[in-house]
């Protein structure tokens, strides 16, 4: 049969995401020999640019981070030679038809697959989907479109966006990215659960007291406030990244590893959950803080943020899954910017040992003696299990120790960026790590009512100092369910 080629068009080629993530990920894939033999990369944006200028722009973002072997700069040159640019409007079928002509020059005699990465604001997703599908879709292969959040700001606007896209594309052509699903330790969650006998049998209300999903960044919006202020941390992190991790964590065993089987199980978890209630949410916003002579700005000091903004930069929430496996187990989420540390992790706190023989060794604080499994997604990837252990010696004294799988110590290979995996999967048509539209709908249903309530009532966030551990309200919320945040104890 015919050979095939893939034409990858990055729409919004001069934007931040394209420069920081997409082009570098494409190069890393090329470097590793993961891209198909025949491929072409096009940048598409409104500004006028020549191919040489695009190559120059892209070239500046590429690094040989994989290793410093001698042929890296040759590889870069080879890669850049396969990058081109077309300037056009995002809503012009005519401009996309011109792109189509240019793509065809590279596709002659081959099955021509086309991948569009919409690295643009969502209000023009539908325009581009229309133009690409009417004027620049593949004549004899597949056409796929990658989009990335924000997918609307509530159930209604998200559904409208989905309807808009589906006027021009079928569900199978739409690859919705949640880049957290491309992270190594998130992908490993299923391996950990389903291929180790010691975990899955414990994975239920019978043994697990609570699950904590924690995201923190040690920097604020720093100029990105314009986007952030109309979304806030609940939409930016919880409704997508943390909820996706929760779904993978809590789902039943899928029938197989096929994308549809996995996504069927994930959507079942989401649909088994009650929408988040106001009494189960705490919101915060960072205020200015001076430390060691340096003054860190408040959120509202960001020039792109209105002075009277009540947008949360921090939120903590308690969610519940109403099914046989998880009934009554609190799933606590916490996400915040401008906190004391940068970290994303999953903490699983196990129950007490019934009739623990060593109770007395722990004094009154038995809670501290329960096992805890920590999956540190980033940075410094690790999986560790806190256990009780006898301190060597003649006496009987116990302490807490870790069984520790520290990735940097165990594996020498550098962990690929999430975008590398996701781009490769999109090229290969592997949909496992992409969000299906029913998952997206279910995710919005959980957060839309509370977001509306917070905004209608203009509920003021609790202020916390930049660089702190966040508002104390988060502790009260956890305490209400008898939980202590693992990252703070
Ligand atoms: C994005 C959010 O989805 O994820 C950002 O919009 C956030 O606000 C980012 O900073 C965090 O991603 P990562 O991969 O750096 O943890």
From TrEMBL:
<feature type="domain" description="Glucose-6-phosphate dehydrogenase NAD-binding">
    <location>
        <begin position="10"/>
        <end position="188"/>
    </location>
</feature>
<keyword id="KW-0119">Carbohydrate metabolism</keyword>
<dbReference type="GO" id="GO:0004345">
    <property type="term" value="F:glucose-6-phosphate dehydrogenase activity"/>
</dbReference>
<comment type="function">
    <text>Catalyzes the rate-limiting step of the oxidative pentose-phosphate pathway, which represents a route for the dissimilation of carbohydrates besides glycolysis.</text>
</comment>
<feature type="domain" description="Glucose-6-phosphate dehydrogenase C-terminal">
    <location>
        <begin position="191"/>
        <end position="485"/>
    </location>
</feature>
<protein>
    <recommendedName>
        <fullName>Glucose-6-phosphate 1-dehydrogenase</fullName>
        <ecNumber>1.1.1.49</ecNumber>
    </recommendedName>
</protein>
<keyword id="KW-0560">Oxidoreductase</keyword>
<dbReference type="GO" id="GO:0009051">
    <property type="term" value="P:pentose-phosphate shunt, oxidative branch"/>
</dbReference>
<dbReference type="GO" id="GO:0009570">
    <property type="term" value="C:chloroplast stroma"/>
</dbReference>
<comment type="similarity">
    <text>Belongs to the glucose-6-phosphate dehydrogenase family.</text>
</comment>
<keyword id="KW-0313">Glucose metabolism</keyword>
<dbReference type="GO" id="GO:0050661">
    <property type="term" value="F:NADP binding"/>
</dbReference>
<dbReference type="GO" id="GO:0006006">
    <property type="term" value="P:glucose metabolic process"/>
</dbReference>
<keyword id="KW-0521">NADP</keyword>
<comment type="pathway">
    <text>Carbohydrate degradation; pentose phosphate pathway; D-ribulose 5-phosphate from D-glucose 6-phosphate (oxidative stage): step 1/3.</text>
</comment>
């Amino acid at each position: 049969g015919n050979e095939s080629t893939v034409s990858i068009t990055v729409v919004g080629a001069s934007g931040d995401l394209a420069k920081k993530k997409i082009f570098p990920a494409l190069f890393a894939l090329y470097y590793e020999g993961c891209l198909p033999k025949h491929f072409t990369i096009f940048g598409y944006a409104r500004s006028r640019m020549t191919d040489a200028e695009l190559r120059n722009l892209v070239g500046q973002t590429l690094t040989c981070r994989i290793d410093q072997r001698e042929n890296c700069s040759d590889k870069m040159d080879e890669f850049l030679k396969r990058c081109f640019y077309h300037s056009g409007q995002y809503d012009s079928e005519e401009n996309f038809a011109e792109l189509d002509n240019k793509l065809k020059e590279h596709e002659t005699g081959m099955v021509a697959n086309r991948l569009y990465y919409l690295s643009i604001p969502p209000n023009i997703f539908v325009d581009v989907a229309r133009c690409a599908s009417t004027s620049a879709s593949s004549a004899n292969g597949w056409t796929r479109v990658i989009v990335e959040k924000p997918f609307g700001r509530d159930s209604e606007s998200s559904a409208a966006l989905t309807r808009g896209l589906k006027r021009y594309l079928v569900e199978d052509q739409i690859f919705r990215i949640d880049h957290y699903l491309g992270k190594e330790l998130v992908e490993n969650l299923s391996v950990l659960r389903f291929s180790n006998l010691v975990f899955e049998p414990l994975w239920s209300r019978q043994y697990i007291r609570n699950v904590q999903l924690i995201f923190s960044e040690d920097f604020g919006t720093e100029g990105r406030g314009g986007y952030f202020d109309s979304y806030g941390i609940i939409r930016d992190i919880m409704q997508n990244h943390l909820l996706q991790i929760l779904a993978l964590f809590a789902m039943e065993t899928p029938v197989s590893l096929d994308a549809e089987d996995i996504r069927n199980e994930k959507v079942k978890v989401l649909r088994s959950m009650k929408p988040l209630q106001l009494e189960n949410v705490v919101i915060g916003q960072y205020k200015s803080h001076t430390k060691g002579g340096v003054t860190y700005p408040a959120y509202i000091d960001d020039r792109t943020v209105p002075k009277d903004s009540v947008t949360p930069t921090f939120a903590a929430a308690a969610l519940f899954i109403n099914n046989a496996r998880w009934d009554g187990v609190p799933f606590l989420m916490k996400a915040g910017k401008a906190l004391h540390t940068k970290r994303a992790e999953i903490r699983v706190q196990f129950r007490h040992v019934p009739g623990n023989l060593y109770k007395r060794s722990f004094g009154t604080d038995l809670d501290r003696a329960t096992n805890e499994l920590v999956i540190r997604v980033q940075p410094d990837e690790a999986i560790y299990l806190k256990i009780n252990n006898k301190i060597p010696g003649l006496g009987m004294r116990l302490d807490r120790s870790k069984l520790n799988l520290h990735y940097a110590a165990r594996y020498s290979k550098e962990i690929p960026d999430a975008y590398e995996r996701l781009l490769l999967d999109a090229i290969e048509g592997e949909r496992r790590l992409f969000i299906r539209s029913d998952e997206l709908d279910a995710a919005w249903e959980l957060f839309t009512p509370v977001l509306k309530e917070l905004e209608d009532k203009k509920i003021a966030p609790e202020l916390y100092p930049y660089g702190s551990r966040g508002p104390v309200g988060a502790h009260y919320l956890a305490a209400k369910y008898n939980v202590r945040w693992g990252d703070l104890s």
